[in-house]
Amino acid sequence: MISSDHPPIPASKVGVLLMNLGTPDAPDTKSVRTYLAEFLSDRRVVELPQIVWQPILRGLVLTTRPKKSAHAYSQVWREDGSPLAAITRAQGAALKDAFGPHVLVDWAMRYGRPAIAERLQAMKDAGCERILLAPLYPQYCAATTATANDKAFAYLASQRWQPAIRTLPPYHDDPAYIAALCDSIDAGIAALNFVPDALVTSFHGMPRRTLEMGDPYHCHCQKTARLLGEALGREVTIAFQSRFGPAKWLGPATDETLVALAQAGKRRVVIVAPGFSVDCLETLEELALRGRESFVEAGGTDFAYIPCLNDSPGSVAMLTTILRRELAGWVSFP
Fold this sequence. Notes:
Layout: E1 13-22, H1 29-39, H2 50-76, H3 83-94, E2 103-111, H4 116-125, E3 128-135, H5 142-157, E4 164-167, H6 175-190, E5 198-204, H7 208-212, H8 217-232, E6 237-241, H9 254-263, E7 268-272, H10 281-297, E8 302-305, H11 313-327
Parallel strand pairs: 1-2, 1-3, 3-4, 5-6, 5-7, 7-8
């Protein structure tokens, strides 16, 4: 029997926390500077000694990059906020009832708000004694998947009563993910008024040394592109975007690939971003806007960017499938 002065105990639940990269609070220089300061101070993101990197970050990067990035954000910002945050929120809402009444689905950002620690605390307060951490990165990378999990584990390290934890594995080669991508691309191409000469899959770039240090990201990207090409029955050109700094990065570079395709006579191009679960600055501004400009300037005539899976029915069905698999044993499904 529980004594009358015992703290209230909520009914036991299972939690699913969707985790994505993060975003500024607003498309202005101050907000972007705050966001970049957190993002670029992450030792998983910039693997340089802090005594070397921090003076560069504070003295050069944060005095020049925020204004430029704020302008880019302003071009893709929505009425309901940052695309990345708004769509991740919509994914959470779409999955709210997917796993039954005793499973709580929430979402958080590794950088910015809502913070991972904040939403984990809310899950604990709601009675979640078991939590599935779900980084929404199909391909594993230390700078994305690992740092999101790190942030969750750092919160757990401060807790007297830790919930049981599982983490969502990378799903770069999962049949449900490949099928969802294939359906999305087929539908996107069918809606065009031109037949593409080339299909480009653009993944976020990483310094080449990460591959040499054992990060599986490059291999995961290559496998996704290969499986996607096989499923579509067409050739796929793989490329990597968003280079930053003087280090050697994974290649070929997306911007250079688009120019080379146009110059080689491939005048009609479709581009997709299978490394992003939802659309964000890097897809909507860097690919859909600047990618188009580069391609047309190089002689291309027709360009189309097919959106990420986002919160589409196909995306929600795919996420439901892979999350149910990881919840097995915690939750019983019919």
